[in-house]
């Protein structure tokens, strides 16, 4: 079980979480709980570091910020004991949760869960701070913001859990953002791949890295609301959305939807380079420097140039990397040989996602027609095995999501 | 160097502490720094534990409250790095600081300072959270409130420090409480034994346990103000009060005062048992149960009884233990065979302290005469090698302290 910062904000809420956890044990489960810091606490600690030195040492930053989850894990153990449960905390260095040394963005390498499993079998509820680990040289590390979801999946994998229940502010994964489409439906099941592609919907629900890890380790993850009535029956009976493998989903006796959901992402920026020489190696000259700087280039289109032997190249990068991308490209202007750079942050990526997608052509033509009928202009297109994405003007985002949600028959039937 | 919670309250003050520390390194010293949590933080964390469960598990309490010093040690390392210093934090479990398992009131058993010394020799400033350690079974322990002074002395002993500078809210140890006697003088030197006896003055300055440890380990402790100008020269040249051994003090070429200071203690309670049988074993029947309950009995006087074969016995206990003491004595009423118990919390203990005290008789007679001249009635007397204490009515505390401060010639000469 994993509880986020909103669920852990203050001792009253922590006592509530303790009741939810205890009920799972009472229902016959062995339970490990991964907790976030109290809502706002990590921000407070990060600000302290920035105030002490804007160029803070990530190793010491980790020492400071890891304390937030240390506090909530101790408090949850205390609150569980108050309910008569046998509970104790294990900090990252105590298990240990071994990570690579990259401070402030460490990756979990291994969790030694032997002691944990032995104690859980004796009926002890294990409480583990999320977000933190220990490097090979015995220092505190943290996994980067939102890392507690990844901690939870990693612990679930280490103890070979039947299920990893992630309690969040929402009660599951929806066909699209319910704030945009009132008729969005909660999905009963979704595959890892779909969940990754639904990132713009899912990012508010689960950290993307945790989904990747769950897929790699085969951990069945359930997303459910932490705001259920704490006198309600155990979580088994009030399902949220279950994230499972494609194989497991195939095995379920249910009608598969062609399309699972509609995602949108406003955090992309478009860059167009005009009059790039249309010759071998030109593209490598553009994307080489960006790849070296670990900037993730997504959609790429090469337009027909106005003059012979020249072409316009358009692609998208994360908006946060736009300034750095422009600097790198300007620096490589001679090598690349372009005329102008035209940046544009007024774009959004809309994606139609579904493992049941049989043919891109069919899905894409429905998409293009639905958008064209409402006057939404498509600036770029990209596809993967389970999605079709288009780049549009940002102002049309909500309209496009609503139109597509209806076009693919995802709207909930009126009650 | 050790800095308390007031000095660490917020990043601005932590940056100030960093400048004070850096100056010591610049003056040619190898430096380790022990830090408290930010002022108010430990109270906040303790309250969380109480709210989670009034009968909290001390082991989990330790996990929660130890986080306060973890935060400040990381932040001070960051602030030192901002000044160009080479600095890093070592948490209690990283050195480790080994303690007995007694959670929330652990005692330091051993500090493995090998890595610390090696790094300090390379010019690294070591930052160590006070108050915390690790038990034999690898769990977080804390030393009890005010334990950071003890941590500092223990680290100083482990690295064989030339000096342990404890920066506090005051600029040294005074002949008495300056809030009572405006003419109180700052002492240049004081012995460990005197410091222990001056507890009622010294308790606001240094935790008593830390003084005992310094005496046992022969650590030279200096008490000085953390509110010195941070552009002032290094601490060597702006001394506070140096706490040293009797031998070192003897070796100093200076005139010794007969009396070092006047202490007062309002936290004692007086208990009188009337008509106790005046026979062998009667006293053992009284103090046996109190000793078993680890209640510290201080002054004891046996009055002349009204009837033959009976006597009144009066003694003091810490006011905090009064209720428990009364319960224990009532339970043993049959065995002891007293008539009535008369408790009295309206008392204060005034002590005259000085290793230079040649004869108790001379010191005591000065004391009794000075108090009698001002109408202060003495209820009990006790002496140790370096002090004479009297018990008086609490309302006369300040008067008695002022009278004695003058009587022993301790008043500062007017500027």
Description:
The structure is a homodimer of 415-residue chains. Chain A has helices at residues 11-26, 41-52, 58-65, 67-82, 114-121, 147-158, 192-197, 199-202, 208-217, 246-251, 282-292, 322-331, 333-336, 360-373, 397-407, and strands at 2-3, 32-35, 87-89, 97-99, 108-111, 125-129, 132-134, 140-142, 164-168, 189-191, 221-225, 241-244, 261-265, 268-277, 300-302, 310-318, 341-344, 347-353, 380-384, 387-393. Chain A is α/β, with parallel strands linked by helices and 415 residues long. The first copy, chain A, folds into 2 domains: 2-250, Acetylglutamate kinase-like (Carbamate kinase), CATH 3.40.1160; 255-415, VC0802-like (2-Layer Sandwich), CATH 3.30.2130.10. In chain A, the strands form 5 sheets. In chain A, strands 3-6-2-1-9-11-12-10 form an 8-stranded mixed sheet, with helices on both faces. Chain A has a 4-stranded antiparallel sheet with strand order 13-18-20-19. In chain A, strands 15-16-14-17 form a 4-stranded antiparallel sheet, covered by helices on one side. In chain A, α6 packs parallel to α9. The two termini of chain A are 32 Å apart. The A-B interface holds A 11-12, 14-15, 45, 48-49, 51-53, 55-57, 59-64, 66-68, 70-71, 73-79, 81-82, 88-89, 91, 93-94, 138-140 and B 11-12, 14-15, 45, 48-49, 51-53, 55-57, 59-64, 66-68, 70-71, 73-79, 81-82, 88-89, 91, 93-94, 138-140.
Brief descriptors of the model:
homodimer, 415 residues, alpha/beta, Carbamate kinase, VC0802-like, 2 domains, eight-stranded mixed β-sheet, four-stranded antiparallel β-sheet
């Amino acid at each position: 079980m994993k509880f986020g910062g909103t669920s852990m904000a203050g001792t009253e809420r922590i006592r509530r979480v303790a009741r939810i956890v205890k009920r799972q044990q009472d229902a016959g489960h062995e339970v490990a709980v991964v907790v976030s810091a109290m809502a706002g606490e990590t921000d407070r600690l990060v600000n302290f570091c920035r105030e002490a030195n804007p160029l803070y040492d990530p190793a010491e930053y980790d020492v400071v910020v890891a304390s937030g989850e240390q506090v909530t894990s101790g408090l949850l153990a205390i609150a569980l004991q108050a309910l008569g449960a046998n509970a104790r905390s294990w900090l990252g260095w105590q298990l240990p949760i071994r990570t690579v040394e990259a401070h402030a963005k460490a990756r979990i390498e291994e969790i030694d869960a032997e002691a944990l499993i032995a104690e859980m079998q004796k009926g002890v509820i294990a409480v583990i701070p999320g977000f933190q680990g220990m490097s090979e040289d015995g220092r505190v590390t943290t996994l980067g913001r939102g890392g507690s979801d990844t901690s939870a999946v990693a612990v679930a994998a280490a103890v070979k859990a039947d299920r990893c229940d992630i309690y969040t502010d929402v009660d599951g994964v929806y066909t699209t953002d319910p704030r945009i489409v009132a008729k969005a439906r909660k999905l009963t099941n979704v595959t890892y791949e779909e969940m990754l592609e639904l990132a713009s919907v899912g990012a508010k629900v689960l950290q993307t890295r945790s989904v990747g890890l769950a897929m790699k380790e085969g951990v069945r993850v359930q997303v459910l609301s932490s705001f259920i009535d704490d006198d309600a029956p155990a979580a088994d009976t009030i399902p949220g959305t279950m994230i499972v493998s494609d194989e497991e989903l195939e095995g379920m006796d249910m009608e598969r939807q062609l399309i699972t959901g509609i995602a949108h992402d406003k955090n992309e920026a478009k860059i167009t380079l005009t009059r790039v020489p249309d010759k071998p190696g030109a593209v490598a000259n553009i994307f080489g420097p960006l790849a070296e700087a670990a900037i993730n280039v997504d959609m790429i289109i090469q337009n027909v140039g106005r003059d012979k032997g020249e072409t316009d190249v358009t692609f998208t990068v994360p908006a946060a990397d736009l300034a750095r991308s422009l600097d790198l490209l300007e620096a490589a202007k001679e090598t690349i040989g372009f005329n102008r750079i035209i940046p544009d942050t007024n774009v959004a990526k809309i994606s139609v996602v579904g493992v049941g997608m049989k043919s891109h052509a069919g899905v894409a033509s429905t998409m293009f027609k639905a958008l064209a009928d409402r006057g939404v202009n498509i600036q770029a297109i990209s596809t993967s095995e389970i999605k079709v994405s288009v780049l549009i003007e940002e102002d049309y985002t909500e309209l496009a999501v609503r139109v597509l949600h209806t076009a693919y028959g995802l709207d909930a039937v009126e009650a």
